[in-house]
Amino acid sequence: MRRLTYFLAALALVFTACEPKEKSVDEMTEAELLEYAKGIHERVITLDTHDDINTTNFTEDNNYTKKLPTQVNLPNMEEGGLDVAWFIVYTGQRELTDEGFDRAYANADDKFKAIHRLAEEIAPDRIEIAYSSDDVRRINATGKKVAMIGIENGYPIGKDINRVKEFYDRGARYMSLAHNGHSQLSDSNTGERDSVWLHNGLSDLGREVIAEMNKWGIMIDLSHPSKVANMEMMRLSKAPVIASHSAARAMNDVSRNLDDEQLMMLKENGGVIQTVAFKSYLNSEKHRANRTRSSEVIAQIAEEEGFEIKPGSLFRAMSRNERTAYFDEYNAFQEKHKERIDAEINSVAPPVNVSDFVDHIDYLVKKIGIKHVGISSDFDGGGGVEGWDDASETFNVTLELVRRGYSEEEIGMIWSGNLLRVLDEVQSIAKQIQAAG
Questions:
Q1: Which of 186, 180, 197, 202 is nearest to 255 (CA)?
Q2: What is the model's pTM?
Q3: Is residue 122 a contact partner of residue 65, using CB atoms and an 8 Å limit?
């Protein structure tokens, strides 16, 4: 019997040795690499936590079922394999008065209604709103796209704490307490420009809102508030937090990025930073050089062609129709000379690209661990890089992650697994808080 056992073991070793070994990424041809990356891209759930909207694109005649000149729309999502888009109820910061709060609420109300209109009236056969991670997986399995809702700036809450629950009921699953400019709830990162602060962190109402968000299951978003406010939010929160669209400040020193102290506290909190594909947040110097060179090249070609580029003062003085006509002419001019413009810019000052974006992901993974890193674009709000400039190019991010040696499991975590894990924990803790009364 012992001899038979030895023989079978030896035979197993022979067959194992004969089995073809799976190729590493470095050993693949370009065609094999592309095929491998496409397979991963199709299997994982790709999720982008920040896509701004304009409600004029959510009407019966003009909406995301068409390939609009927006970075995100259903055709672009379908072409690029972007499964989940977080549509943003964004409100710019204005005066902290009753009139200001009323206008802010009306703006938020309009955007909530627009998102629901798209998913429930305009294109329910192509997109559906998710309220939980289970919803995301269920909807994705049907082949439809997934909409989720985030709030950028808690300004529309005004002074009414009950609006936190209202916004949750309307589908909001994350919210930041400030944008550019101090809100009634929190200081903004923009205080770094002039060292003028309103609350030195959070206001008393802001602290109440944090507790209310924990209670109802809305993720707390660190993107845009000040560092002091963010640190206070993480200390107060009973649940993990997110940064919905920020990058690493150690890689590029701008106030919208999180520094290492915030990152380490976010790791301890169990949260996730959704790395943002925003050129000036990723590499300000490279972006400035590209913009400068772009202006020089376009001005030179315009002079040769006799095309007049309108200065800002003249553009602002135009009527709406005049602006539209000028934009059409300018876009036609750029399209006509696109190849020359690109060649003369890229040879001297190439744009910020997908590789620069994934450099930040690499840094964050090494600094705080892969469980705490995700992806966002800030499309239609200024985001986008060369290679991922709209949702139709989403595959290029997966391809770059594959080139860097990330496994399918790791890519799935970065694209959606980490964010959905935080959402699960936030909602579980909310149920506990509600049960405790």
A1: 180
A2: 0.92
A3: yes
3-class DSSP string for 122-161: HCCCCEEECCCHHHHHHHHHHCCEEEEEEEECCHHHCCCC
Query: How distant, in Å, are the alpha carbons of 8, 10, 11, 16, 19 from that of 5?
Result: 5, 9, 10, 16, 21
CA–CA gap between residue 268 and residue 408 (Å, rounded): 25
Task: Domain 29-283+352-436: give its CATH code.
Answer: 3.20.20.140
- Per-residue pLDDT, averaged over 427-432, amounts to 98
Q: Give the per-residue pLDDT at 315.
A: 76
How far are the Cα atoms of 17, 48, 309, 315, 335 from residue 312, in angstroms, in the given order? 70, 33, 9, 5, 21
- Measured in residues, the chain has a length of 437
pLDDT tens per residue across span 105-136: 999 999 999 999 999 999 999 999 999 999 99
Query: Can you spell out the DSSP letters for 210-270?
Result: HHHHHHHTPEEE-SSB-HHHHHHHHHH-SS--EEEEE-BTTTS--TTSBPHHHHHHHHHHT
Residues 290-339 pLDDT 10s: 999 999 999 999 999 899 998 877 778 888 788 888 888 998 998 999 99
DSSP notation for 22-63 = PPPGGGS-HHHHHHHHHHHHHHSPPEEEEEE--GGGSSSSS-
Task: Tell me the domain boundaries of the chain.
Answer: 29-283+352-436, 286-350
Angstrom distance (rounded) from CA 175 to CA 69:
27
